[in-house]
Amino acid sequence: MATSPPATDAWLVDLRAQALEAYQREPLPKWRRSGFWTTSLRTLELDSLQPRRYEPTDVLPAPLVAALGGDAVGALVVQRGASTVHVEVEEELSAQGVIVSSLETAVEEHPELVREHYMRRLSHEEGKFSAATAAFWTGGAFVYVPANVRLEKPIQTVYLIDEGATAQYAHTLAIVGEHSECSIREYCLGAPIEGQALHAGAFELYAKAGANVKLAHFHDWGPGEIYDISTKRVEIARDARVDWVPVHLSGRLTKQTLDIVTAEPGSDMRHTGLYFTEGNEHLDLFTTDRHEAGHTTGDTVWKGALTGDSRASYEGLIHIVPNAQESHTYLQTHQMLLSRKAKGDAIPSLIVETDSVSASHGGTVGELDEEQIFYMTSRGLPRSEAVRILIEGYFEEVVQRLDDEGLQSLVRRRIAEKLGDADDQVAEFIGERA
Amino acid sequence: MSLEIQNLHVRIEEREILHGVDLKVSKGETHALMGPNGSGKSTLANTIMGNPNYEVTKGRIVFNGEDMTEADPDERARAGLFLAFQYPATIPGVSVANFLRLAVNARRDEPMKVKDFGKYMRENVDLLKIDPSFVSRYLNEGFSGGEKKRAEILQLAMLKPEIAVLDETDSGLDIDALRIVSDGVNALSGPGMGSLIITHYTRILNYVRPQFVHIMLDGRIVREGGPELADKLEEHGYDFIRKEVDDADGH
Q1: Rounded distance, CA A58 to CA A61, Å?
Q2: Under CATH, domain B2-250 is a member of which superfamily?
Q3: Nearest chain B residue to A372, by CA
Q4: Residues of B with CB below 8 A from A374's CB?
Q5: Which ipTM did the prediction report?
Q6: Closest CA to A236 of A276, A207, A195
Q7: CB distance A301 to A332 below 8 Å
Q8: Of A151, A363, B144, B193, which is least surrounded by CB within 10 A?
Q9: Residues in chain A closer than 8 A to B52 (CB atoms)
């Protein structure tokens, strides 16, 4: 078991103590869904994974350099293992009152701001790993954009795991003030590691009235045995808009709860997700579009593809609470199987507790369409190329919604790489049916 | 330079649809294959292009002297065959321009330079009087019936096949769209291309004048002739031909 880091503020010490109590009380979870889908942690050697500290550095870690390419960012917070190792913020941002730092630093330097928002939408009573994150987080990231600020370059936070037998307890708190516009990107990156590692994460974003936030989560944990058990929550206030794009490209086992809440009239969400699993990866995602007030809007699209023996389950819930009349929302999810052994499901669901709303959803799980392949081959494209183009095209709709050129090219590149790696088995699978 | 269909028998699932079809289309010729719904016209078109759902049980497809009966669709395409689909598939996430570039390059040893391709595409877009913004849309996604057919004709124009099969390219088109498609086909027809226009109606033949007309009933070609055969069909309908054929069989 990890030990809590020292916290100077009594309120946080108290919260961590409560979380630790919950952690010790809660059993190791097992998530069951739809009767046949189970995410179990029986292979996770939790007790042997310890937080590891690293010294600060000016040299960015290689996986981050590769992921960032030439992207210009306005601010950057990098956490390696249990330590914040690199923070940079452009002067122009600081001059506008923007704060980007580790959460540890923010607790010391901006206690009121942190305390007002910290875990307002999260709880340590949501199972063992929520409790673990709340009790043990170190480093962390804090983003504060004051009211009426418009930022051109994205604010970037990074969680990196590049050593085995480690545990990373992460917490990002982001606040975007009234009528401000900005883009926040969080990258979760892994290097090929020996043995296991754990990322237990919490993320919370509060978009204040009239704010407009583009938020991206890019997960690419690599081929190592990295477990990611995280909860992310986004709250959107009156007339604010959040455009959220989570991307999952690798990781041994991922179990994430992703919730986006339109909390006040006029708030608007766009939620676009993508995943591509391979090998023996296991991905379990549960998203909720929660409408807590009337006159709110939502638009969700999630697309995934599976190769190898991988397992991927996506469940997307639209929840419209009582009194949230005149909410209009839409959710669609698609999943494509690209190997015989891969198994997945994509389940849209709906809870509507009021009237005068429009809420629709649709989901498909399928394989590549032979008619499409015939069409493309009839134009002279070899079958394997037709298949590759169809899969890239399938994801392209989601990539287009990223609205961030650097991230778009990163995602396209990684999809192409993954398709290249899976070329033989996809060809075999598609060939079997011909 | 010709496409020869020899005694072709084709099965889909367990049912035989074509019962011995013979047909020859040479470069520079325009043929019309006419027949009522269910007569086997689309089966022939799909089989010519190598749709894996259709099984050839007997006979051959010979293109430029080479037996193509077992060839994959992409080999046939690269050899110079083209099928304009009755119901073209939608290809999400792939723009018309991107798809055209891939298809044009698939039959070249060296890919065309991006600039040259752009120019080549613009020429054809202008020739077919297509709105230039059309090529940045995803192929066939949300296209109207007319737009789908236009996309097919644009591909035909840019891929420059030796033999083109147009499967019910006229169906579902209003008169303006029909004229645009017909003008396109006429502009492309000539000594360099042979075409087989498959249609249920005689309507398109008011715009595209075939030299040869073949009439298909129940998986067989039952009448062949010149344009006058289409006129006769226009006047008397398929039932008349069917009766003639049945009476002939009765003797």
Answers
A1: 9
A2: P-loop containing nucleotide triphosphate hydrolases (3.40.50.300)
A3: B89
A4: 49, 51-53, 73, 89
A5: 0.95
A6: A207
A7: yes
A8: B144
A9: 370, 374, 434
